[in-house]
Specification:
alpha/beta, Ubiquitin-like (UB roll)
């Protein structure tokens, strides 16, 4: 397998947009009907009519599946498909007017055990997860980024202002989890936060230098590829979204999480919307009166995922929404790679992207992994951004990684049969 380390860029990185901090605030009234998407459960014990309290650990055939972010009852349980045709179980719930707090949450918080608390928060619906070391072991270092990773948003500045107490509470909690804590801030001084007892490092907020692996290399000198887990190096990476969720659980003693969304819509000032986990996007878009859009990207323009259905709910990791009008949608055409080399020049992982894309287009995923180091891709999306032929390289890479995962899972299943 070809395994390459990072090098300097041959192309200039993207600098964040210089924009005003002025945003339009929107408080979204929670709807009666909410939805939770979890990875495919198959047949199980979840049935219409079952009731949950806020903070209750919901189990399916004895396995912990998710923590309910509100009080209500199941209306229906079904299967849906998301990005890359990935299967999810959709649980539709009717929210009660009166909240009831589950003993599960009170019990977990009363332990003051970081491992139990973080594992509990990891059960909130969504992909925002905390790395947890085994009991009685500390991480060597936690990197806490207060920077916007995507160059087209400035949500962190707004989030820190709106959730200052929660963020401070989360940072205080994290001090006990590692021998060293490093807070990463933008070099331009646009974000400041008092973090006593923690190191502060300021980084030029240039993309993709703002990606976790790149920042860790700048600070520590260690090159950790996407094939490897930070936890194996005694490290963890948390961004401002982790702090907002963790801080609300600790400070407000609730998992009825406010999920702040930074919303960019063509022709109007950015919006800052207080959504909740479980809100369908139909309700969010109606609440902000969105009109001029043809497509929606979630969490990033460069490496964000397209929204395939307006029934998709807000989840723990949802942080920004880009409403893209018809005229701004790239016209992807059926062109082949012209070997211009722009993707190779910009790739922070030094991958031979021009060769990799040929194997991915022909569905030769095992060759892409073994011969062209597919799994080392950082998923920055810059290859698609610079592609002269307008090939959606990023999505081919995401599909390739997903298909490789399915191949490995099938091999493991066959071996254990």
């Amino acid at each position: 397998m070809v395994q390459k380390s990072f090098v300097h860029f041959w192309q200039k990185p993207l600098l964040p947009s210089k924009v005003s901090l002025e945003v339009q605030k929107v408080n979204i009234i929670p709807p009666k009907i909410n939805k939770i998407w979890v990875r495919e459960l198959g047949s199980g014990s979840l049935r219409p009519g079952m009731r949950f309290k806020t903070g209750e650990i919901v189990r399916n055939d004895g396995l912990e599946v998710f923590v309910s972010p509100f009080t209500g009852s199941i209306v229906s349980v079904g299967e849906v498909k998301g990005y890359l045709n990935r299967q999810y179980t959709e649980i539709v719930l009717e929210k009660d007017d009166e909240e009831q707090i589950s003993q599960d949450m009170e019990t977990v918080l009363a332990t003051k055990d970081p491992e139990r608390i973080l594992n509990y928060i990891n059960l909130l619906p969504g992909e925002l997860k905390f790395s947890v070391m085994p009991s009685n072991r500390k991480l060597d270092v936690i990197y806490i980024s207060l920077m916007d990773e995507d160059p087209f948003t400035f949500g962190s500045q707004v989030f820190i202002k709106e959730f200052h107490k929660e963020i401070i509470e989360a940072i205080s909690f994290l001090k006990e989890l590692a021998n060293r804590q490093v807070v990463v801030l933008p070099e331009d001084g646009s974000i400041t936060l008092d973090t006593p007892g923690m190191e502060q490092v300021r980084i030029v907020p240039a993309y993709p230098h703002s990606l976790p692996q790149m920042i860790i290399k700048q600070i520590s000198g260690k090159e950790i590829s996407s094939r490897e887990r930070l936890l194996d190096y005694g490290m963890a990476w948390l961004d401002i979204n982790h702090l907002i969720v963790l801080g609300q659980v600790l400070f407000r003693k609730s998992v009825d999480i406010i999920r702040p969304l930074f919303i960019v819509e063509n022709g109007s000032k950015p919006k800052f919307a207080n959504a909740k986990i479980g809100m369908p996007f139909t309700h969010i878009l109606e609440s902000i009166r969105a009109e001029n859009y043809r497509a929606i990207a979630i969490n990033s323009l460069l490496k964000g995922l397209p929204l395939f259905s307006l029934d998709h709910p807000t989840l723990s990791h949802t942080c920004s929404v880009f409403l893209i009008p018809e005229e701004d949608i790239p016209e992807f055409v059926d062109h082949q790679c012209i070997n211009c080399g722009e993707c190779v020049k910009i790739c922070p992982s030094r991958l031979p992207v021009n060769m990799l894309i040929r194997y991915l287009q022909n569905r030769r995923y095992e060759d892409a992994v073994k011969n062209f180091d597919l799994l080392s891709c950082m998923e920055c999306g810059m290859c698609t951004y610079v592609c002269v032929a307008k090939i959606p390289i990023f999505h081919y890479i995401m599909l390739g990684k997903y298909e490789w995962q399915l191949i490995k899972e099938k091999e493991e299943t066959d071996a254990n049969a």
